[in-house]
Amino acid sequence: MSRSRPGRSNSVVRKVINGTHVFKRTSNKNKLAILFAGRKHRPCVYCGKALTLQSASFDHVKPLSAGGYDRAKNGEVTCKQCNNAKGSMSKGEYMAKVKGLQK
Fold it and tell me: Does residue 6 sit within a domain?
Protein backbone atom coordinates (compact mmCIF):
# COMPACT_ATOMS: atom_id res chain seq x y z
CA MET A 1 0.00 0.00 0.00
CA SER A 2 1.39 3.35 -1.04
CA ARG A 3 1.25 6.04 1.60
CA SER A 4 1.95 9.70 1.17
CA ARG A 5 3.72 11.72 3.78
CA PRO A 6 1.51 13.82 6.04
CA GLY A 7 0.95 17.31 4.71
CA ARG A 8 2.15 16.38 1.22
CA SER A 9 0.14 15.80 -1.92
CA ASN A 10 1.06 13.33 -4.67
CA SER A 11 -0.24 15.70 -7.36
CA VAL A 12 1.77 18.33 -9.18
CA VAL A 13 -0.38 21.18 -7.88
CA ARG A 14 1.96 23.93 -6.82
CA LYS A 15 -0.59 26.18 -5.13
CA VAL A 16 -4.23 27.19 -5.18
CA ILE A 17 -5.09 30.80 -6.04
CA ASN A 18 -8.71 31.91 -5.69
CA GLY A 19 -9.89 28.33 -5.92
CA THR A 20 -7.86 27.61 -9.09
CA HIS A 21 -5.11 25.01 -9.07
CA VAL A 22 -1.84 26.34 -10.48
CA PHE A 23 0.38 23.58 -11.83
CA LYS A 24 4.11 23.41 -12.32
CA ARG A 25 5.12 24.64 -15.74
CA THR A 26 5.77 21.93 -18.32
CA SER A 27 8.74 22.48 -20.62
CA ASN A 28 8.06 23.27 -24.28
CA LYS A 29 10.03 20.13 -25.25
CA ASN A 30 7.62 17.98 -23.24
CA LYS A 31 4.61 19.72 -24.82
CA LEU A 32 6.10 19.18 -28.30
CA ALA A 33 6.60 15.49 -27.51
CA ILE A 34 2.90 15.28 -26.64
CA LEU A 35 1.96 16.98 -29.92
CA PHE A 36 4.25 14.69 -31.96
CA ALA A 37 2.69 11.62 -30.26
CA GLY A 38 5.00 9.00 -31.77
CA ARG A 39 5.31 10.59 -35.21
CA LYS A 40 8.73 11.30 -36.67
CA HIS A 41 7.62 14.35 -38.66
CA ARG A 42 4.93 17.00 -38.35
CA PRO A 43 4.26 19.93 -40.70
CA CYS A 44 4.42 23.54 -39.56
CA VAL A 45 0.79 24.68 -39.24
CA TYR A 46 1.61 27.96 -40.99
CA CYS A 47 4.04 27.19 -43.84
CA GLY A 48 3.80 23.39 -44.10
CA LYS A 49 7.54 22.77 -43.71
CA ALA A 50 8.29 19.21 -42.50
CA LEU A 51 9.63 19.31 -38.95
CA THR A 52 11.25 16.86 -36.57
CA LEU A 53 10.98 17.06 -32.81
CA GLN A 54 14.42 18.69 -32.75
CA SER A 55 13.64 21.34 -35.39
CA ALA A 56 10.11 22.16 -34.21
CA SER A 57 8.98 25.05 -32.06
CA PHE A 58 6.01 25.11 -29.67
CA ASP A 59 3.56 27.90 -30.45
CA HIS A 60 0.74 29.01 -28.15
CA VAL A 61 -2.50 29.30 -30.19
CA LYS A 62 -3.83 31.84 -27.70
CA PRO A 63 -0.74 33.73 -26.51
CA LEU A 64 0.12 33.74 -22.84
CA SER A 65 0.07 37.55 -22.99
CA ALA A 66 -3.61 37.34 -24.01
CA GLY A 67 -4.53 34.96 -21.19
CA GLY A 68 -3.78 31.69 -22.96
CA TYR A 69 -2.81 28.59 -21.04
CA ASP A 70 0.66 27.07 -21.01
CA ARG A 71 -0.57 23.59 -21.91
CA ALA A 72 -0.12 21.26 -24.88
CA LYS A 73 -3.80 21.66 -25.82
CA ASN A 74 -3.16 25.40 -26.39
CA GLY A 75 -0.22 24.68 -28.65
CA GLU A 76 0.71 23.80 -32.18
CA VAL A 77 3.83 22.63 -33.97
CA THR A 78 5.50 25.42 -35.93
CA CYS A 79 8.88 26.12 -37.43
CA LYS A 80 11.03 28.63 -35.56
CA GLN A 81 10.75 31.21 -38.35
CA CYS A 82 6.93 31.24 -38.29
CA ASN A 83 6.81 31.22 -34.50
CA ASN A 84 9.20 34.20 -34.30
CA ALA A 85 7.27 36.08 -37.00
CA LYS A 86 3.97 35.44 -35.20
CA GLY A 87 5.28 36.80 -31.90
CA SER A 88 2.41 37.58 -29.50
CA MET A 89 -0.30 37.64 -32.19
CA SER A 90 -3.14 35.13 -32.03
CA LYS A 91 -3.35 32.48 -34.73
CA GLY A 92 -6.16 34.40 -36.47
CA GLU A 93 -4.24 37.68 -36.43
CA TYR A 94 -1.13 36.04 -37.84
CA MET A 95 -3.04 34.17 -40.57
CA ALA A 96 -4.74 37.43 -41.61
CA LYS A 97 -1.34 39.13 -41.78
CA VAL A 98 0.15 36.30 -43.87
CA LYS A 99 -2.84 36.30 -46.27
CA GLY A 100 -2.53 40.09 -46.60
CA LEU A 101 1.15 39.73 -47.58
CA GLN A 102 0.37 37.08 -50.21
CA LYS A 103 -1.97 39.37 -52.18
Answer: no
Question: Residue 58: which domain range?
Answer: 13-91
Q: Residue 45's closest CA among 76, 6, 69, 3?
A: 76
pTM above 0.90, yes or no: no
For the segment 30-75, what is each residue's pLDDT rounded down to a tens digit? 777 777 777 788 899 999 999 988 889 989 888 888 888 888 888 8
In a domain, 40, yes or no: yes
Q: Can you give the CATH number for the domain in which 87 is found? A: 1.10.30
Number of domains within the chain: 1
DSSP element (H, E) containing 20 = strand 20-23
